[in-house]
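stuck on this chain:
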Amino acid sequence: MTHNETSEDEERARRDLLHETKVVSALGDHPHLPMIFGVVTKASPLCLVTQFHGVQQESVTLHQAADNNAVTKANCISIFKKICSVLDHVHSKGYLHNDIKGNNVVLERPSASGEFSPVLIDFG
């Protein structure tokens, strides 16, 4: 805990983290959702441990890829369809994301095609 944080702030952060863990766990397995390996709530920093999604050991968001013109028009359409698919899955489980934006979509290259594939994050 930093000098600006209070125990109340830390407790709120712990509740938020546990809520996000519960939501992502309830959503189940989907190729465009993060896989949770664990959660740290008893020590600082609090953290959610998920499978790494990125490109060559770097996390790349949709926002960053768009800013760098790293995504082709065809790949943009593919990414959009996959985001729609994961949102359909999220909604079918009775949840809403409420913060869809480029920084909450992490991209990875899981196939030899070189196309990016999205993973929707931040369910807190």
Helices lie at 7-27, 62-67, 73-92. Residues 55 and 108 are 5 Å apart (CA to CA).
